[in-house]
Structures are given as C-alpha cells and as structure tokens.
Write a structure and sequence with these properties.
The chain is an all-alpha fold. It contains five helices and no strands.
Length: 139
C-alpha cells in the first residue's frame, strides 16, 4: 500500500515520462495511470488476496464501462447544438448511474460495504491527486 506522499512521487514520475513519450492512444486508458489507480484504490481498501483476485477483473470492467461514457460526455462538448448536448449528457450520466448500481451488487458479493465505500472514496482521491499533478505540470 502506498502512502500519499510516496504515491504522489510515483504519479509525478509516471506522468512526466508518460506525457513526454508522445501522444497517448485515447481509445484506452493509459496503462501506467491505470496501474497506479488500481494500486492506490486497492491499497486503500485492505483486500485479502482472495478478494483481490475476484475484485480486479470486475473493477477493470466497471472502470472500462464508465470510461466509455465519460469520454462520450467529453466528446459532446464539441457539438455546437446545446439542446442536443444537454439531452445526451443527461442520458449518458443516467447510464453511468445504472452501471454503478449494477456493479454495486456485484462488488458486494466480493467485498464488504465498508470496502466499497473506501473504493469510491479512493477513486475520488486518486482523481484529485492526478488533477493536481497535471495542473502543476501545466498539462
């Protein structure tokens, strides 16, 4: 499990070399960032080895499904039709809520409610850490 200062250093190092290496394939999540996110999130959750083995494939599918919808929402910003943007954004956000609800039940078959709450919290923390590093680097 990483402490926040150690994690921050690893994230900064990864981001520096990841972004200087050239353009990333935006159709998939950056593998280095994804790895750090998984390590951070699972490290906060205190999973047993058995839980971890069952949790990771499910978490990867969950993350991939949400990522598709987040990117679709981001792509809407390029559409000049505001009415269309508003309607489609609402539909996509509703789909994300449905995905989270569906996966919640699946997660609770593997982990405790406390671990799931910790997962949600750790995802938010990871996002904030990532955004802060990107802002500091001017990316």
């Amino acid at each position: 499990m990483f402490t926040k200062p150690v994690f921050s250093l690893l994230l900064a190092f990864t981001l520096f070399f990841g972004f200087t290496a050239g353009a990333q394939d935006r159709a998939k999540p950056d593998p280095q960032i994804r790895k750090l996110k998984i390590e951070y999130v699972t490290g906060q959750m205190n999973l047993t080895q058995q839980q971890l083995q069952k949790f990771l494939p499910l978490y990867n599918r969950y993350s991939d499904e949400l990522l598709v919808h987040r990117r679709a929402i981001k792509a809407l910003e390029k559409n000049p039709n505001s009415s269309y943007q508003v309607e489609e954004r609402q539909k996509l956000e509703q789909k994300m809520v449905e995905i989270k609800g569906r996966y919640k039940d699946d997660f609770l078959r593997i982990i405790t409610a406390q671990q799931l709450a910790t997962m949600y919290k750790a995802e938010g923390e990871f996002k904030n850490i990532l955004l802060n590093h990107l802002k500091k680097q001017g990316k």
